[in-house]
Amino acid sequence: MSGSASRASIYSKMVINKDGKTANIVGKTVSFEYFESVYSPELTANLVFVDAGTSIAADKEQDTQERLGSIKDSLPITGYEDVEIKIESKSGVLDFVKEPFRVNGAPILGQESNRQGVFLPLRSNPAVENLQPKNPCKKYTGRISDTVESILKNELNITKDRYDIDKTSNGYNFISEGRGALDVINDLCRKSIPVNGDPGYFFYETQNGFNFKSVDTLISQEPVETYVYSGGLKANLETDENDFRILAQPNIRKDQDVLKALESGTYSSRNVFFNPRTFETDEKIYEIKLDEPKKTLGKKPPFIDKVSTYSRTNFHILDVGSLDSYVSKGINCDPREWQAKSPMRYNLLHSQIMDIQVPCNLELMAGNVIRCEFEKQSDQKEMGTINQQQSGNYIILHLCHHFDSERSYTSMTLARDTYGLYNSKS
After folding, report:
1. Distance CA 57, CA 217 (A)
2. pLDDT (tens digit, 9 = 90+) per residue, 256-281?
3. Which of 327, 384, 399, 409 has its CA 20 to 30 A from that of 6?
4. Rg of the Cα trace of the chain?
């Protein structure tokens, strides 16, 4: 497909299936938006289509005269229908034919005598299965990453080619307590410690499947693309000159919050752990130190040298033998290894948050790292045009691919823990 990546994409397949009946809405679709997020273990999408009202014949149960009518009323769309989607863009294909979305509702946006506008909020199928757990009170034991794999395979029937799991070094014994499979795995993220690196994982779904990834693994990735922003941008849908340009001024949602970082104990915290078996307390202070190597997306964490002592105190109760049938001294998933460190890792990652919009790129996914290069405001351009403080690697927190009859683009929310062009890796 030649021309700009911002041009309208091709709807190869847009089909609604219900009880053996199908409705093709390729020519009726007005817009489609697809969403991913490292916070979300499910995919979502919004589809809007306009129907002239003579699309499909109703069953006798819906209309005694079996007249032609709108898809919404004659199929009818009431929720839980499968929607197969395939969209071709210059950058690739968004294919949900084998793994169709499920309709979550079908409100009418507008209605006239000869046409009807319908909005379909869509969810990926595991989101539906999550609310109908097969084993509502199942006991899990052993390494956390093995538990995650077992849940995906046995509770959600996810095949091995549809998930990617980082091994953990720690285990956790627990009972699911009626929660859905996706919710159970989400709860394990903050307790998970990778084989190498700091505690803290994300569990999320992309077009390739499910991911259970440590923060350190994600920020250690090489950038998948580089995007440039230089202020002026000439609209052009005929060539590819803007394909890797940021289309509009980035929206800076957060650029450090010193007080919030101190209040949350991002850089240093005091933690008191109570052992209910011995009634003893154990006190530990966790801090990010300048002389200790730490993986970051840029240089070393800012204003770390200004933090002289802990700024937050947390209290925790150790889990000693709660699931054992015998008197146990062992500590279940020892929180001294993750309880304070996980929030520090998560909070640091969200030090800088920014929204950008680029021409449609279906190869981008939540959890990817991209490199952004911003123009430096200087009258000495001959010495270099890149702002080395603001430019660098960012992780994609949220992503939206937007398609309509005129254009296609990708919107992203990016995050970064530090400043600088060059990343620091331990």
Report:
1. 53
2. 888 888 888 888 999 999 999 899 99
3. 384
4. 25
